[in-house]
Specification:
Chain A has twelve helices and twelve strands. Chain A has 402 residues and is of the alpha/beta class. The longest helix of chain B has 15 residues. In chain B, strand 2, helix 2 and strand 3 form a beta-alpha-beta unit. The chains are: A alpha/beta (402), B alpha/beta (357). Chain B: This is 3-methyl-2-oxobutanoate dehydrogenase (2-methylpropanoyl-transferring).
């Protein structure tokens, strides 16, 4: 039963994206261990990833991933929550409760969840503007998400950041960046600080296939490699940089190879277990040897942002094809039901709970007030050096001294 | 007194009787009947004409092939082919540098930066390469064929990275020109002039007006002069200077001030560098008062340059301090945008206090 490798630089837009989940299941059955009962925490399952890892300049990790029923359930719960949250954000945007720009992550949940499963909250994650789910994975609450999206005080950035600027300092989430590619050198700087403080932690700096063509990526990569920084650069390749397909933007869409002297690994980003395995491998590697590139082959169902319908540069058939064949939540659902860890009904009940939780969070977020007008001037400079402008032409400034 | 029959956005005829600005021979009368177009359609027309009239003109940038995020480049790829209208990867520094090289061989390179907020990676190329190319090669080489177009300015909900007005950074660079249109009819003429100007130009388009501003735009090929300001309405009490989308706000303030008996003279600067000092000077010598308004933060904004120059030239004629109504000195906020922006009321307040000084 040979599974064909993902063509790394194929120019066909649709065919390489769709690899059926059924292929994964046919493998798992051959390596399935018997389970005692559905909710037994101590059981370990070994499940094979849907595809083998493709590597560049390093030895790929094994396809067999150790997991447990509890972990699989948590994967399902988290991904379903993220999915529901993004869809709720979609409706809120259309109802004009969320203004500005809103970039949704649905379809890519496996990357966020798989990454979290492999690391601790002391490791750092820094990403671009498609950050709602990553924030949630880092321990953010639904209330913080919706409040920030709607620009309210209860939001994680006090309502001053908006969709693209979620942060959670205590859990090592460094945001949330609007300018494409700008977060990568930042991530390498974080890695340097981690190496310096010798706390055995790493930084995952995520970027997209569009950002992969930015000069600063290569500058940061060179620095990280030169100084052996524990930085893992994660290319979340959803194959479209806004409206431009990867093959039209990159001579070599094999992003995991573009590090050249930096090793890389290509991962099926729709398979949460593969992501977990890859991130675990990457963390061990980076702590010993320096930077690594992970390319997550993933897909976004929505357009680039809420202002983009997402169908002018790709066909609806492609989107629904991926949803049918590779959806990350469905994959875990099938794993759970086929291994008798949970029944369909139980999973549906979980989804109902999630729906309720999301609705409650939205209601609560709506109650939260907008930030005070004086907040316009706070935090421009350090420590409450609030400056207010007044006068007929608003040119006079009054500063509150500490 | 100029017949103020025109309200912003509804221009009846092209021929303008201006008392103060020097009208050169560039403008043509409308020969065909003008069509009602919005800003992005006018820019689209200008690009079509530019590519039509010069076989060595190219349009490139992120996502321009399907029409661009604001539809300014629709139809170009189909009409002129993928060798002349093409997408670039996501690399602003690369885009502008590449454009400079293309222009150095005598081509007209029309580069699009998707939002002016993203122009900073290209800042080095613009300042250090484009602006100095002719100078440092003793006129052997130049990149005059380069035009960089970028949507700028607030859009109501753009937040930090879709609303910035970076014109002031570029106004500090001798060697390039910075042009900002206020309306569709202006945009088409100014853009064609920029493309055909033998100097590198940065052309900022007010994104708020892409759909909002609708005007009769002549269908033919016409150019508007660069480095000439235009007086939009004559007045005797105070001069107001602005550019881009801000002018419509200022116009509303002028109308309100008129009700209080204050006669305002409104000038559109159009080209920020090299700017038309003479027109502004003549106007301020007449009125004795100046108000400058722009969306960019007040400290170090281009209003500061205008203010300083006018004080040098017209000190003894000034009746009141020059006032600037601009954005605040904060990052462009998301929810606080209404507080940040230089609104009509702030301008009106300033007009009154300046006149009553």
């Amino acid at each position: 039963m040979a599974v064909s490798r993902l063509a790394s630089s194929s120019s066909s837009s649709g065919s390489s994206l769709v690899k059926p989940i059924s292929a994964a299941l046919s493998f798992t059955s051959s390596l399935r261990r018997s389970l005692s009962s559905s909710a037994d925490d101590s059981t370990t399952l070994t499940i094979e990833t849907s595809l083998p890892f493709t590597s560049h300049n390093c030895d790929p990790p094994s396809r067999a991933v150790e997991t447990s029923p509890k972990e699989l359930m948590s994967f399902f719960r988290e991904m379903a929550l993220m999915r529901r949250m993004e869809i709720a954000a979609d409706s809120l945007y259309k109802a004009k409760l969320i203004r500005g720009f809103c970039h949704l992550y649905d379809g890519q949940e496996a990357v966020a969840v798989g990454m979290e499963a492999a690391i601790t909250k002391k490791d750092c994650i820094i990403t671009a503007y498609r950050d709602h789910c990553t924030f949630l994975g880092r321990g953010g609450t639904l209330l913080e998400v919706f409040a920030e999206l709607m620009g309210r005080q209860a939001g994680c950035s006090k309502g001053k950041g908006g969709s693209m600027h979620f942060y959670k300092k205590e859990n090592g989430f460094y945001g949330g960046h609007g300018i494409v590619g700008a977060q990568i050198p930042l991530g390498c700087g974080l890695a340097f600080a981690q190496k310096y403080s010798k706390d055995e932690t790493v930084t995952f700096a995520s970027y997209g296939d569009g950002a992969a063509n930015q000069g600063q990526l290569f500058e940061a990569l060179n620095m990280a490699a030169l100084w052996d920084l524990p930085a893992i650069l994660v290319c979340e390749n959803n194959h479209y940089g806004m409206g431009t397909a990867e093959w039209r933007a990159a001579k070599s869409p094999a992003y995991y190879k573009r590090g050249d002297y930096v090793p890389g690994l290509k991962v099926d980003g729709m398979d949460v277990l593969a992501v977990k395995q890859a991130c675990k491998f990457a963390k061990e590697y980076a702590l010993k040897n320096g930077p690594l590139i992970l390319e997550m082959d993933t897909y976004r169902y929505h357009g680039h942002s809420m202002s983009d319908p997402g169908s002018t540069y790709r066909t609806r058939d492609e989107i629904s094809g991926v949803r049918q064949e590779r959806d990350p939540v469905e994959r875990v659902r099938k794993l759970l039901t086929s291994h008798d860890i949970a029944s369909e009904k139980e999973l549906k009940d979980i989804e109902k709970e999630i729906r309720k939780a999301v609705d409650e969070a939205i209601a609560q977020a709506k109650e939260s007030p907008m930030p005070e007008p004086s907040e316009l001037f706070t935090n421009v400079y350090v420590k409450g050096y609030g400056v207010e402008s007044f006068g007929a032409d608003r040119k006079e400034v009054r500063a509150r001294l500490p | 007194m100029i017949a103020s029959m025109r309200r912003f956005g509804r221009w009846v005829s092209l021929v303008s009787k201006r008392e103060f600005s020097n009208s050169s021979g560039f403008e043509k009368n409308a020969e065909q009947s003008p069509k009602s177009l919005n800003l992005y359609s006018a820019i689209n027309q200008a690009l079509h004409i530019a590519l039509e009239t010069d076989p060595r003109a190219y349009v490139f940038g992120e996502d321009v092939s399907f029409g661009g995020v604001f539809r300014c480049t629709t139809g170009l790829a189909d009409r002129f082919g993928k060798n002349r209208v093409f997408n670039t990867p996501l690399c602003e520094q690369g885009i502008v540098g590449f454009g400079i090289g293309l222009a150095a061989l005598g081509n007209r390179a029309i580069a699009e930066i998707q939002f002016a907020d993203y122009i900073y990676p290209a800042f080095d190329q613009i300042v250090n390469e484009a602006a100095k190319f002719r100078y440092r090669s003793g006129n052997q080489f130049n990149c005059g064929g380069l035009t960089i177009r970028a949507p700028y300015g607030a859009v109501g909900h753009g937040g930090h990275y879709h609303s910035q007005s970076p014109e002031a950074f570029f106004c500090h660079v001798p060697g390039i020109k910075v042009v900002i249109p206020r309306s569709p009819q202006q945009a088409k003429g100014l853009l064609l002039s920029c493309i055909r100007d033998p100097n590198p130009v940065v052309f900022f388009e007010p994104k708020w007006l892409y759909r909002l501003a609708v005007e009769d735009v002549p269908e033919d090929d016409y150019m508007l002069p660069l480095s000439e300001a235009e007086v939009l309405r004559g007045g005797t009490d105070i001069t107001l200077v602005g550019w881009g989308a801000q002018l419509s706000i200022m116009e509303q303030a002028c109308l309100d001030a008129e009700k209080d008996g204050i006669s305002c003279e409104l000038i559109d600067l159009r080209t920020l560098i090299p700017w038309d000092k003479d027109t502004i000077e003549t106007s301020v010598k007449k009125t004795g008062r100046l108000l400058i308004s722009h969306e960019a933060p007040v400290t170090g904004g281009f209003g500061a340059e205008i203010s300083a120059s006018i004080v040098e030239r017209c000190f003894s004629r000034l009746e009141a301090p020059i006032t600037r109504i601009c954005g605040l000195d904060t990052p462009f906020p998301l929810v606080f945008e209404p507080f940040y922006m230089p609104t009509k009321n702030k301008i009106l307040d300033a007009i009154k206090s300046t006149v009553g000084y």
